[in-house]
Amino acid sequence: MAATLTANAPARPRKLLASRRTRIGILYALPVVVYLLVLFVYPILSTLFLSLKNTDGSLTLHWYAEALTGVNLSVLFTTLRISAETALFSLVFGFILANAISRLKPLWAGVAMLIVVVPHFISALVRTYGWIILLGDKGLVNQAMADLWIPGAPYQLLYNEIGVVIGTTSVMLPYTVLLLYGVMRGVDRRLLAAAASMGAGRVTIFRRVYLPLVAPGLASAGLLSFILSLGYYITPALMGGPQQTMIASLINQQVMKQNQWNGAAAEGVILLLLTFAGLLLVKLITSLGASRKKRSAS
Amino acid sequence: MMELRRTLAGRVTLTAVATVILLFLALPIIVIIVTSFSNNAFAAFPPKAWTLNWYTSLFADGSKWPAALSLSALVACLSTVFSLVIGVTAATALTRSELPLRSAVYALVLGPLLIPQIVTALGLFLLFEPASMLGSPLAIALGHTVLASPIAVLILVATLRGIDERLEDAAASMGAGRLTIARRITFPLAAPGMIAAAIFSFITSFDEFYISQFLSSVDTVTLPVQIYNSLTFDIDPSVTAISALLIAGAILALALVALVRWLGSGRQDSLLSVENTAGIAAPGGEAV
């Protein structure tokens, strides 16, 4: 049918049409380009300039020096640590869950995916509040532990790093599950069957065939939840103590409480650079993964 | 036999662990809904007595919630309109034209989704503060559109890619003008995608926290900022009720997206089969 329709279409004067289609393209692309240049690119560039400017207008690296010393430096390390912990847990939980879902029958896989996707569209603030109720001294978790005669209960699960990591992991988990589910669905099952037909055991197949195939996906899913955690502070601010202050929270405090725009701008640029580094790594891993796939296919 | 038993045990363990992880995702949401009807909104769970007090106190005199709710609704509506205009034009340019620097435009569109929202928020603060636009619903909506419009663009690009361009070519070959094609062919087929883009833009703006916090003023506070404030500064038990309403709203919105997608899914096929019955298909070609 495709051939018939193309044959029936009138022969187009190619060149004329091409230039008109180009003009339409530019015209229609204008709103998004202008909008994002004015309200996204320009504001970020002005953040960059502000971070390099002294109060008298001269150029300086003073704000960066300040951002990388004392309390501010420890906030940076806290941010990296909490993000790494969050990424690790979301990756492990995400791997187990995505793997389980990819083995389920379509109906149950659909139900499980719904439980993954729906929370993702519910405000992170609301979900964090749910955790605050759950993890309190008299919350469900501590009550259950007390009922099970677990020694030491009730545990302090709020306003410390345990609470923060539980909370942020539940916020980042949907991303990793969705990413990993996509990767796992893309694995050619015939490769696993081929390995089995050659006498490989289940552990060997998992370790030598399955894991290498999903490894690039695992790495980029982990990095992505790490990057997303870097700029996040809703849950750490609500479920953590002063020890869990993150960069984004610091930026907010510097602007709102201390009127310290330059310092905030420098923190913002550092956050931006960390994000770019992470994204670059993701890009590197995916291109490596693609070339490996090509090699194994040939 | 041994192997079989081991596989079974492994499968049971995997299912159990996966169920616990699913609970980990669902539990905070279930707890909010149950607690919103609980006599004691803070301490104990599960509740011992039930009440609707938190829902009625949402709209009591002196409550901050109605103002926050209406501001968020206004901002989200504005942002949805902006995002749709930007989304429809951008998606048309990206799928139905020869656009120079196409990959640069794509990179620009993806930018706000990849860059930490706090950095975008700080930049917008630096833009709007000197213009003394803090607290203005328009400024907040313009800010939210930076995050919402890329999502609208991506959804609409996928929608337009999914529409068979041969249908548009066929209409053109029968003498339809560009406007007629857009109105009679492309728009009806793209409508489910446009509704989905609108709903996701609305949710994005309605839930947005960082930009709102930077662009709010003392007396104009969006709903998420009000929730954050009442969880940190003034403890207000009716926050459970508003949270439960937000959960209900999100589930409703997602159900609406699913419904629209499902209703729209058959449309293109039926249009193509109309061509078939009209005898455009070559004789002896695909089964009619």
Give a written overview of the molecule.
- The complex is a heterodimer of chains A (298) and B (288).
- Chain A has helices at residues 2-8, 14-51, 62-67, 70-103, 106-120, 124-135, 140-147, 161-185, 189-197, 202-230, 234-239, 247-256, 261-297.
- Chain A is mostly helical and 298 residues long.
- With 288 residues, chain B is mainly α.
- Chain B has two domains: 17-52, no CATH class; 66-238, Orthogonal Bundle (MetI-like fold), CATH 1.10.3720.10.
- Chain B has twelve helices and no strands.
- Chain B has helices at residues 2-35, 53-58, 65-95, 102-114, 117-128, 137-162, 165-173, 178-207, 210-215, 223-232, 239-264, 267-277.
- Mean pLDDT of chain B is 87; it is low at 277-288.
- Classes of the chains: A mainly alpha (298), B mainly alpha (288).
- Chains A and B meet through helix 1, helix 2, helix 4, helix 5 and helix 6 of A and helix 1, helix 3, helix 4, helix 5 and helix 6 of B.
- Chain B: Residues 69-258 form the ABC transmembrane type-1 domain.
- Chain B: It is found in: Cell inner membrane; Cell membrane.
- Chain B: Belongs to the binding-protein-dependent transport system permease family.
- Chain B: It is a multi-pass membrane protein.
Descriptive keywords:
heterodimer, A: 298 residues, mainly alpha, MetI-like fold, 13 helices, 79% helix, B: 288 residues, 2 domains, 12 helices, 0% strand, disordered C terminus, transmembrane helix (chain A), transmembrane (chain A), MetI-like_sf (chain A)
